[in-house]
Structure formats: structure tokens, C-alpha cells
Specification:
Blueprint (H helix, E strand, L loop, with lengths): L1 H15 L12 E4 L2 E2 L9 E3 L2 E5 H7 L3 E5 L4 E6 L2 E6 L4 E4 L2 E4 L5 E3 L2 E5 H7 L2 E6 L4 E6 L4 H21 L10 H11 L2 H12 L2 E9 L2 E6 L6 E5 L4 E6 L2 E3 L1 H4 L10 E5 L6 E8 L7 E7 L3 E7 L4 E8 L15 E7 L16 H16 L5 E5 L9 H10 L4 E8 L12 E5 L5 H15 L3 E6 L3 H5 L4 E8 L3 H7 L2 H19 L11
Parallel strand pairs: 1-13, 14-18, 24-25, 24-26, 26-29, 27-28
Antiparallel strand pairs: 1-2, 3-4, 4-11, 5-6, 6-7, 7-8, 8-9, 10-11, 12-13, 14-15, 15-23, 16-17, 17-21, 19-20, 20-21, 22-23, 27-29
Length: 520
């Protein structure tokens, strides 16, 4: 009886023992300097293997960083002033100014966003980071001086002022209030240094006017300068950065500062493709001015400058799938390579949150690279970046090109109820005349992936049905299967698949004999 009494007592103690909150960051809110930062629904802060992960681009954009995404390498590059960083999805290290830095956890993809460890953001972007378990929020703040530093600054300030009073010479003061520092410096500087300061102010690059008419943004400066212009997505926008520039006080006064620190130049209901145009001083030691054209849909642009300091950015309609006139170079056969999905259509999600459109583009670009110097082929891509030609446009492009073959690259997937069991490679065709192409391409696809052979199948896919030449759709592997997916997002497997597609095309079109032995 005593033995059971101890068991009952232990159970009661466990039940009464206080439970500690579990820091689950899934769907958490994100704040920067006390202001809420909106993140995409599929890329809000979350806990991954015990590490809080935050959307890198969302945070970085608020701090003036520039980003470049290389889907074929799963690499994201980040740059601001003299800081250059690069990291890869799935790797536990990053490059920071040429040095390797370890990460608490590897970056992962969530939709179109790259999630990185919160600690890395704090250390490399100079932020103070905090996870509030009670409110389930990630709080970021740009680091400020500590109370001890403030006391030292105040002491130095007093000492410097006393020295200036006794010696009647120039002095350098330290303060945490920039406005007071400027005023004090003007008081104690010698005439020669005052002249240098005035000359420095005169040399400052100033934005004197901003206008937007007839789809053209015009920026008037007090002297010539070369802006940094780049596109961003999710949402679509064009960013114009003017490093080292400042806003002329006379110009900026009529535009009240909004809650996020920006000023609104113009806004629209979006019917003309423009949501709003905003501008603001850029963060960072070197300052600068950033102008953002928020778009309703992706647009192209033309940039021009003149000797009077005027910059013009003329918006142009974007042609996602320009028609390319068939070249029909003698001795060359036109092959159309179609990376499935793209742009607004991400395709299937993998077991680790990666997207089908990223895999298909990476493989297609490798196929293009292998064929571009081959005198037997003329390669036409339905897309070579993250855009979305419709299914009809893809097939029509192949027909307009009078192509010899059409190859659409995909990654397969099954619902979660399948528990990731489905795996393997399969090839689809829609018309009988495509059967020989399907047979040849499938043989090389299975040899390249090493996955289970799911055979050749007939299906009514629009791109293979409407293409007027032999056409196939390759389901390289299952993104919903952990083993297939892990291989599909490696450079080695993607290169093998690309080579397999090239070998299949060469065998089918008779440009090169490939024996069965070479596939083993």
C-alpha cells in the first residue's frame, strides 16, 4: 500500500508543478523599433527546431538592404554600404564580407521568403532582438548606446566644453543628440573649420523635387548623381536609391511623415498599375534617400540622367513572354524548354517548404546552359526567371517557333494523407505522335534521378495537348517525398537531370548516338 501511496503522491506533485510556457513563434507578430512590420502570411516568424526564424527580406528591406535571389543555387545575397552577405537555403553557414559565419539553423524557404535565425539577424544587422513569449512577438530594435556610454559621453561633453572655454580653440564633442551636436560644433569651430563645414554642406547631394506624370518619375537634384535602381517582388515595386543624398527641407515640408517614417508623393486606386509612390531618408551611417514605386503588377523601366541633375525613370509595360522570331539556323533544331509554374503560380510545396517553380527553373536553366553552345540546337525558354506565362502562352510560343520538340519540367506531389510515400519519376504525353519522344526522354530521366520508375503515362495536360510538335511533361520526382525532395534540391541531382534531358533530346533528334550502356 505504501508503494502505491508514493506513486499517487508523485502524480499529484507532477500535476501541481508549474508548467513553463513553450516559445512557439508560429504566426508571431514582428516589430521593428516598436512599429509593426507586415510579413507575408506564409512567412511570419516561427520556431524551427527550437530556433526562432524570421523573414530576412522583410526585415532587411526596412533597414535599406538590397537583395538578390539566385534560384538555381538557392542563394540569397544581401548588400548595404560596405556590407556583403550571402547564404544558401539548407546550409548552416553564411559568408559575411568574405568570412564564414556559423548559423544556429539553416535558412529555409517559406513561400517566396527566406527564413533565417533571429540571432543572425541581430548580430549581422546590428539589431537588438527579443522574443516575447507572452505576446508571441519578435521585437527588433536598432541598437542604441548603453546608459554607461551615455554617462561617458556626458562626461566627455562637459570636459570638452570646459577645455573650449579655457583655450578658446576648436573642440570635438560627443553626444547622443545629433541636433545639439551640430549646434555646439558651429559655436566652437574656428573660422577655417566653419568654412569647411559650410563647404561640406554645399557639397551634399540634395533631392530638390520629385514628380510623377505620364508614367515617368522625375527626380531633381542639385548636382549630377547615379542612382541605384532595382526591382523587388511580393509585392512588386521599383526602388530608386540615392546614396549619400538628403531631402531638401523646402521640398519635403509639404509631405507629412507617415507612421513608418516615409512620405507619400502620390497614391492611386491601382487602375493605372500604380499603388503609391513613397520616399524617405535611408537608414545607415552614410544616409541617402530611397524612392519606392509600389506597383499593381510588374513593370519594366528605362532610366536616363542629364547634366543638370535630373533623373527620369520611365515605366514600360512588361512583356512576360515576348514572341521570338524563329531563327531556323541551318542545321539547328528548335527545342522549347518549359520550366513549370512560376511567378504567381508557385506550384507544389515540398516537405521543407520549398516551391516547385524554383526546382523547375533551376533544372531548365542548366539544360539551357548545356545546349546553348551546341551547334545542333536552338534553345527557346518559356521563362528564364520567376514569371508566369499562361499554359496557352507556353504552347503557343512553341507553335510560333515551329519547334521540333517541347519539354515541360515539373516536380510531382501527393496530399499529406499519402504520408510522403509516393515517390519516383514518370513521363506524360497527350498525343500518339509524342509516344516515341516520351519513351526516349523517360529512359534518360529515370537513369538521371535514380528514383523509382513509374513508367510512361498518357494524360491530357494542356501544354502537351496544344503543342503541335512532339511534347512531353517530365515529373522528375515527388516533392512530397522526403527522400526524393532532398535529392531534387541538390546541385548534383539537378545537373544529372539536366544532362539526362539533353541526352534524351540528342538521341530522339538524332544529333548524337547515346547507347544504353552509357546510362548505367
Amino acid at each position: 500500500m505504501k508503494k502505491y501511496g508514493w506513486v499517487i503522491l508523485a502524480a499529484i506533485l507532477i500535476w501541481l508543478w508549474p508548467s513553463f510556457p513553450h516559445a512557439n513563434a508560429a504566426g508571431a507578430d514582428l516589430f521593428l523599433d516598436g512599429k509593426r512590420v507586415e510579413a507575408p502570411a506564409d512567412a511570419r516568424p516561427e520556431m524551427v527546431n527550437g530556433k526562432v526564424m524570421v523573414p530576412l527580406r522583410v526585415v532587411g528591406e526596412q533597414l535599406g538592404y538590397q537583395f538578390k535571389w539566385e534560384p538555381q543555387a538557392y542563394k540569397i545575397s544581401i548588400q548595404k554600404n560596405s556590407t556583403d552577405m550571402a547564404m544558401y537555403v539548407g546550409r548552416t553557414s553564411a559568408d559575411v564580407n568574405g568570412k564564414t559565419v556559423s548559423l544556429d539553423a539553416p535558412p529555409v524557404l517559406r513561400g517566396n521568403s527566406t527564413m533565417v535565425p533571429l540571432r543572425f539577424v541581430g548580430e549581422q544587422m546590428g539589431l537588438k532582438v527579443d522574443w516575447n513569449n507572452k505576446s508571441k512577438s519578435v521585437n527588433l530594435s536598432q541598437k542604441t548606446t548603453t546608459p554607461q556610454t551615455d554617462q561617458q559621453a556626458e562626461s566627455q561633453k562637459t570636459s570638452t566644453q570646459n577645455t573650449s572655454s579655457k583655450q578658446k580653440t576648436s573642440a570635438t564633442t560627443t553626444t547622443t543628440n545629433a541636433a545639439e551636436a551640430d549646434k555646439r560644433t558651429e559655436t566652437v569651430l574656428s573660422p577655417s573649420k566653419q568654412q569647411n563645414t559650410e563647404q561640406s554642406k554645399a557639397n551634399t547631394l540634395l533631392v530638390q523635387d520629385l514628380t510623377f506624370e505620364h508614367d515617368a518619375l522625375k527626380i531633381s537634384l542639385n548636382k549630377t548623381a547615379t542612382p541605384k535602381v532595382f526591382k523587388m517582388t511580393e509585392p512588386d515595386r521599383i526602388v530608386v536609391d540615392l546614396p549619400g543624398a538628403a531631402l531638401s527641407s523646402g521640398f519635403s515640408q509639404p509631405f507629412p511623415v507617415r507612421g513608418d517614417g516615409s512620405r507619400l508623393l502620390t497614391n492611386s486606386d491601382g487602375t493605372d498599375g500604380i499603388q503609391e509612390i513613397r520616399f524617405a531618408p535611408a537608414d545607415g551611417q552614410n544616409g541617402g534617400v530611397r524612392v519606392v514605386i509600389a506597383l499593381n503588377q510588374a513593370r519594366d523601366y528605362e532610366l536616363s540622367t542629364n547634366s543638370t541633375g535630373e533623373i527620369t525613370l520611365q515605366l514600360r509595360e512588361r512583356s512576360e513572354n515576348p514572341v521570338v522570331t524563329p531563327t531556323h539556323v541551318e542545321g539547328r533544331q528548335i527545342v522549347v524548354i518549359d520550366p513549370g509554374h512560376g511567378g504567381k503560380d508557385p506550384g507544389a510545396a515540398s516537405v521543407t517548404g520549398r516551391r516547385e517553380k524554383e526546382f523547375t527553373l533551376a533544372v531548365a536553366l542548366k539544360v539551357q546552359q548545356l545546349l546553348q553552345n551546341d551547334p545542333s540546337f536552338q534553345v527557346v525558354m518559356t521563362r528564364d526567371e520567376d514569371t508566369y506565362p499562361t499554359l496557352d502562352e507556353r504552347a503557343q510560343l512553341a507553335n510560333d517557333q515551329q519547334a521540333s520538340v517541347f519539354v515541360s519540367i515539373h516536380g510531382n506531389s501527393m496530399p499529406a494523407s499519402n504520408n510522403g510515400k509516393a515517390n519516383g519519376s514518370e513521363t506524360y504525353y497527350a498525343r500518339q505522335e509524342s509516344l516515341n519522344l516520351a519513351t526516349t526522354m523517360h529512359k534518360h530521366l529515370v537513369a538521371a534521378t535514380g528514383f523509382k520508375d513509374n513508367n510512361i503515362k498518357m494524360a491530357n495536360h494542356l501544354v502537351t495537348r496544344k503543342s503541335q510538335m512532339p511534347a512531353v511533361l517530365l515529373e522528375c520526382g515527388y516533392l512530397s517525398n522526403p527522400s526524393d525532395e532532398a535529392a531534387m534540391f541538390t546541385e548534383e541531382t539537378q545537373e544529372r537531370i539536366a544532362q539526362g534531358i539533353v541526352d534524351g533530346l540528342k538521341e530522339y533528334l538524332g544529333t548524337e548516338t547515346v547507347t544504353t550502356e552509357s546510362l548505367n
